[in-house]
Amino acid sequence: MPVTLTVAALLYVVAALIARTVPLANLPALVLAAGFAYVPLFALCAVILTALCRKKLLSMIGIVLLATCVAVQVPWHDLGRTSGTAPPSIELRVLSSNIQKGEVDPTAFINLAVDSADIITMSELTAEAAARFREGGLRRTFPYSILVPRPGAGGMGLWSRYPLTALAPSNYGNNFIAARVRVPGVRDDPVVASVHLMSPLAGGANTFAQWNHRITAAKAEFADYAETAGPAAVIIAGDFNATPDMRQFRDLLDVGYRDAVNQTGAGFSPTYSPHPAIPPLITIDHVLTRNSTAQSIHTVDIPGTDHRALLATVAVPLVP
């Protein structure tokens, strides 16, 4: 029995590594990749089991698999990394939140935003939630906004302390809004986008295929943002419904983007839980930067939503 358990654990680790490495083709592979942050623990258990079984070959395989699992997670953690000389820049504080179909506590959200943010990106904005934010005085601190409220999970919002110039709506069928931000002292206006990709588990026979199509389209859209911005900074924040261990998510970074968690070495930063009684387990909310540098990022609990918000500080060069 111990040998059987050992082999099963090793096979699970191998399957998870494959799921993480190649583009996801189906829901089982997606589930394996989504849970990859915990796979090193399974690999460690497998190594312990191989030692107990005194199977030298299995032990060697287990050690190699454990080392591989750890190696792919290390870049997400701060291991004493040092940064080079940065150009003169201004810090933009970005608050990104999925507000669970408008159910977030408006007072708690407004207090957090006023104290901690310059830019707000929001998904699942309903008309009722937008009205509550307006009544709560959010516009006093964030007078510039682009709002597309919708029933359910389809609404989007972008608020700013600084003037916004909206970019053309998405041509790719995704639920994104984007704008250039007139930041005092910055020569070229940064592009900021609020994004929400559909869930691959939302229900329906073709949900995974639709998610795969949308995230592939997002890569093209992010390339368009980069082209529009030119040398200027780009900041993309929102609910990606994808973890860093999914190949399709990492492919989004191909045109010069960095994930703020990776850039800062913030480590494992889960943002979503399927149930209020369970702490967040997976990281599906992200802040991406281009021609700019994330200085810090952390998660924040806000009452009324099943997602932790992200608060990121991004250094935007004054002269790109």
UniProtKB/TrEMBL annotation:
GO molecular function: endonuclease activity; exonuclease activity
Keywords: Endonuclease, Exonuclease, Hydrolase, Membrane, Nuclease, Transmembrane, Transmembrane helix
Residues spanning the membrane: 29-50, 57-76
Protein name: Endonuclease/exonuclease/phosphatase family protein
Organism field: Mycolicibacterium frederiksbergense
Matches recorded under InterPro entries: Endo/exonu/phosph_ase_sf (IPR036691), Endo/exonuclease/phosphatase (IPR005135)
Sequence ranges assigned to domain Endonuclease/exonuclease/phosphatase in this UniProt record: 96-307
